[in-house]
């Protein structure tokens, strides 16, 4: 399958009452260079939690916007790509049919799914909805992140093409294992076994197995 894609990049800007962010992105056409850390011209404000080799690109399914517009009719006009700060927007790819470790060809590049996007409190300020990050996590409509395993020229004219599937854990299942289930050591082991899983998610799941408990997520979700 070939999935046409829209492409977005953003610059860091200040947000009143919150920390700087590059969540506000604009559509770009023509060819771009994709390297190990992402698209040329794209920025991340806090590289400890955003960006880096395992989080070089963010992908959000365009079909989710109808859900959010129905959830928040007063803000319905906000819910169009790239409102969630995504670099890639498509129809036809969702958390249900994309798997951890999936390798996609995009132009000259190869990109690999590493983890679901972990919603953070900056979304609350971005949309003016106090619990937007929590609602996004609970709904399982988070999108996902990629690493770049082969850099190259990419463009909105080049579709995403699934090249290899190397695990049996969908992004939807990873979300459920991490956030929707009570402590489950067997499921954490299953997720850890998924090829391509990011270092940060590997660390989190391994810490849970060692401690026997789920970490507090309130700071990430509420600031």
UniProtKB/TrEMBL annotation:
**MF annotations from Gene Ontology:** catalytic activity; molybdenum ion binding; pyridoxal phosphate binding
PROSITE patterns the UniProt entry points to: MOSC (PS51340)
Instruction: Name any one Pfam family assigned in the record.
Output: MOSC
Q: Which residues form the signal peptide?
A: none
Q: Report TM segments.
A: none
- Look up and give the organism this protein is from: Citrobacter koseri (strain ATCC BAA-895 / CDC 4225-83 / SGSC4696)
- What InterPro entries would the database entry show? Benzoxazolinone_Detox_Enz, MoCF_Sase_C, Pyrv_Knase-like_insert_dom_sf, Tri_helical_YiiM-like
Domain MOSC positions: 26-163
Protein name, per record: MOSC domain-containing protein
Q: Which residues form a coiled coil?
A: none
